[in-house]
Design a protein that fits this description.
7 helices; mainly alpha; about 65% helix
Amino acid sequence: MMKATARNWIIQANIGLLSEQELIQRADDYISQHDTSPDWMIAIAAKESLRGIEQLDLILTPITDADAVIIAGEMLALLNSDQRDIQQIAAASQQLYRQLDWGSDIFNQFIWISDELALIELGVKSAEGYQDKVIEALNNVICHK
């Protein structure tokens, strides 16, 4: 269970939702709250390589649609709590869709979030209603069966 949580943190850091310092802090907090910690949690806290560690090495165990569903929930929570703004969510969406299987429904939601902001920034589209549509797209991912 904790390894799945750590994987979620690593994915968030990989796509820019968490800073490296926030990732390390979460690992440090876990270590300080438990009498024993797995070697991989200590490796996260010490900024050591996770290469070859099942679930935590994102090359060995690539990001899946199931991971993306969890990340969409994190994005929504961060956006709703004003801990991240819409540009940060769009940037993370861009990093995430690049690591998903091309053309899946979930991939399409994240690429839409990213591309739509790019069109807004180019002045091709209006920003009106964009945040609401992003929330809808993230909810579509979360509800994906």
